[in-house]
Amino acid sequence: MTQTPRAPRALVPWAHVADLMDGWPDELPVAVYDGTGEPPPDLSAVRFYVLPYAKPEATALLARMPALEAVQSLSAGVDKLLPRLPPGVVLCNGRGLHDASVAEHALSLILAVLRDIPHWVRRQDDHRWAPHFTRSLAGSRALLIGYGSIGAAVEARLLPFEVEVVRVARRARPGVHGIGELPGLLPDADIVILTLPQTATTTGLLGAEQLAALPDGALVVNVGRGGTIDTAALLDQTASGRLYAALDVVDPEPLPADHPLWRVPGVLITPHVAGGSATFYPRAERLIAEQLRRFADGRPLLNVVDRA
Amino acid sequence: MTQTPRAPRALVPWAHVADLMDGWPDELPVAVYDGTGEPPPDLSAVRFYVLPYAKPEATALLARMPALEAVQSLSAGVDKLLPRLPPGVVLCNGRGLHDASVAEHALSLILAVLRDIPHWVRRQDDHRWAPHFTRSLAGSRALLIGYGSIGAAVEARLLPFEVEVVRVARRARPGVHGIGELPGLLPDADIVILTLPQTATTTGLLGAEQLAALPDGALVVNVGRGGTIDTAALLDQTASGRLYAALDVVDPEPLPADHPLWRVPGVLITPHVAGGSATFYPRAERLIAEQLRRFADGRPLLNVVDRA
């Protein structure tokens, strides 16, 4: 933790953001708090708070910031943060920061399941060379549910694999199906990829009926929010061996040790790590530097979330 | 096994190639032999033999084919087949059939290592939700050694991941470095991907000196032939934790159960399965149908290997 001599007016998670700015702005004393250890003692003057990434407990400090004007989240989804935010405070999200990282993880999950990487890892642990031929991604039809910046980043990475991408978003638009068209699209999908935030519309979007509409052997991939899939229904359809799944997000999270989903052979689980890989940090630092400059200059912030 | 009434003049591995041809050519009686079970009893009239894929023992039949004129291999690399082939027999290889499959597997290996898929698989087996943030492919520099059709297919799949690709081939040409330039290129490579056949030039290409030239934390990927890397040197550099590796091919193959490479934490091994995934079969069937038509019509075959 670094402290400026005056009571800080901004709190950011990484000291080296200053390097991108040729030092902190004179008019905005900045302190560093990365979400671990002790926060600066006097938060009464903090006007701009950049929440440490993936440290939900850091929101507790909000109650100690009476001068707070703006909060920068480094997550794309702010569903859990919104209800904890004092009225009148501007909220900015981390839209775009995770696109490359999440899309890369989505492809890692898809390729791992289709090319049997979990199987080879376990055979390696047995020291056993026992080849068999696997499925391929090439020639698949992928149904991309959610077509924001992350969905588009997933699509860009899928296309050179000779994949046909069918786009679905909450609102239909040219080239993108509306979510209401899902019943007609699910029966032809080899792979379904969810990149959705959790909202009233998306919660439980893939339930028993939707999963039953998928063809045998289809792969369900979730890198959005766990609650968009009905976990019990997915467990049914994967435990029977009818569907495969690769999940970076689940409901509930963390997945309890005794949850049966851990043990399904056709399910690959990663613990909500899609967004935070190394490529996220330089992008996040550049956004924080830009937002600090804008805030110090009184210019409009980027990525402001409509709280209405 | 299907047999025609007359002694077969062609032997192919899959019966349903006939569907692509509206039946076998009248002038070329075809039998089916997939490399398992009993071959047709009378091979004396076989002029065209399509070797069953990944069944090296099927080359034993060559000695029973006195009328043989042409052999179609479904592999891209024919290094092991060449010395077993009678002089004067035309050899056609499976160039292009594996591009999509091998390139897809290369990406599966790269992403699995960088995004810690083996670690997550083992944590899943422990039912343990324990996130940590991983490395990324984005922002990496990949040195592609071998720039034939497989190398180009790997490149096409890498580019949307925000990867800088540096191409190296046996002969320098515009946009492609010659293999002699490797010493200057290795120190800047985050990932080295080998897609080389095994020849006198490529054997042991990555030895102790070349591996030592790579930066700390670099990832070595081999989807070509195992002998292009010095296994002992790679074991040294990975067991120390300095380098990572993801290998679909190794030397020796199969890797013996007591080989120390199995146990290196930073090494992911798959048992030579890159080329044979589901997407290979329709491509191979189309090639066989085309070659049978050409052979029956006395037209030149495709993919003829220069045996000089």
TrEMBL record, chains A, B:
Boundaries of every D-isomer specific 2-hydroxyacid dehydrogenase catalytic domain copy: 59-305
Keywords: NAD, Oxidoreductase
Pfam family, one: 2-Hacid_dh
Domain D-isomer specific 2-hydroxyacid dehydrogenase NAD-binding, first and last residues per copy: 107-274
Keyword set includes Oxidoreductase: yes
Family, per entry: Belongs to the D-isomer specific 2-hydroxyacid dehydrogenase family.
Matches recorded under PANTHER family: 2-HACID_DH_C DOMAIN-CONTAINING PROTEIN, D-ISOMER SPECIFIC 2-HYDROXYACID DEHYDROGENASE NAD-BINDING DOMAIN-CONTAINING PROTEIN
Identification of the protein by name: 2-hydroxyacid dehydrogenase
Organism: Actinoallomurus oryzae
Lineage: Bacteria, Bacillati, Actinomycetota, Actinomycetes, Streptosporangiales
